[in-house]
Design a protein that fits this description.
four-stranded parallel β-sheet, DHBP synthase, eleven-stranded mixed β-sheet, binds threonylcarbamoyladenylate, 331 residues, alpha/beta, binds magnesium ion
Length: 331
Amino acid sequence: MQTEILKPNKETYSFASKLINEGEVVAFPTETVYGLGADATNEEAVKKIFIAKGRPSDNPLIVHLSDKKDIVKYVFSINELEQQIIDKFMPGPISLVLRKNDKICPIVTAGGETVAIRIPENLVARDFIKACDKPICAPSANTSKRPSPTIAKHVYDDMNGKIPLIIDGGQTTVGIESTVVKVEDNEVYILRPGKISKEKLESELKCVVHEKFKPGKVVESPGTKYTHYKPRCDMILVKTDVINTIANLYNENTKKGKKVVIFCKQESLKYFDGMNAVSIGKDSNEASHNIFKYLRDYENNDLIIAEYFDNGTMVDGLYNRMSKSCSGNII
Ligand code: TXA
Ligand code: MG
C-alpha cells in the first residue's frame, strides 16, 4: 500500500473522510502525539489499527470526538463530577473514562464496559474528525513499544506501506499523551499522567485526586516488564547525584568504545563540556515536548543517559514516559 503524507486542507479532509468511511486507517496530528484513527463503529476498520501497530488486543483505544455535545451519544451516563471535567478541560489533553453504550464496538474497549473519551484541542484533529462524521478511535501512531510519534515523519517511519494517509500537521505541542482520568465515588483517579496534572485537577475540580499510575513499581521492577516508548539503543535515567553520575557513566561508557549521548536540562549543559550532550529543555514541559522526537533522533547511539527533570508542571508525565523508555533502568 502507498502511504501519502498530505498537509491539512479541505481536499485532504475530504479524502481522509472517504478513507475512514470506507473502513481505512488514517494518521492525524493532535496536540499530544499523532494518532492512528479509524471509525470506532466499524469493527473491521478497528482491527486494522491493531494490525498496523502490532498492538495486543487487550489494550483499549481512546475514542476521539470533535465536539462535547457528541459525548452523550456514546456513553451510558455522565455524573456531575464527570460533567465538570468535560466543561473545564475539554477540548484538551485529557481522556475521560466513562461507561460506554453499545454504539462503540467491543474491540475498541477490549471488551470492557467503559470507554475513554477525548476531544483534542488541535484544530486539525477536530476538523478531521468533523469531516469524517464518525467517532474516531485512535492509539498513538507508533508501532507498539516504540516512542510515540510527534512529527509526521516518525509516523511514516513506522507506518509506511501499512496505512493510506498521514495528515501532516507539523510537530505536536504537548509531546506526551493525554492524562487519562476516571471518576469513582466522587473522586478522580489519574490512570496515566499527562500535561493536566494532579494539582491542576484538584484546583479546578475541588475534589480528591488519586494517582493510580504511581505504585512505585517502576524503580522496584526494572527490566523487561516495561516495553513502552523504547528507543533502539540502551537508556539510563539518572535521578541521584545527577551531574557526577552522568559524567561518570559517560566517561566509563565512552572508554569502552560506546557512542553515548546525554539528554539534560538546559542549565546542566555547562557541566558536560566536551561531552556529547544535548539540552532537551529547561523544564519538564519543554522536555515533554521534545522527548519522543529526541529518543528517535538519537537512537543511533549505543546509550542515552538522561537527566531526571524535577521542575515544571509535567514532572510526573515526563518521568512516567522516561522511566518506561529506559525499561526501569533508573539510578
Ligand atoms: O494523547 C493521547 O491520548 C493519544 C492521542 C492520539 O489522542 N492517544 C493515546 O492512545 O495515547 P494509546 O492507545 O496509545 O493510549 C491509550 C491509553 C492506554 O494506556 C489505555 O490502556 C488507556 O488509555 N485506556 C483506553 N481506554 C481505556 C478505558 N476504557 N479504561 C482505562 N484505560 C483506558
Ligand atoms: Mg501509545
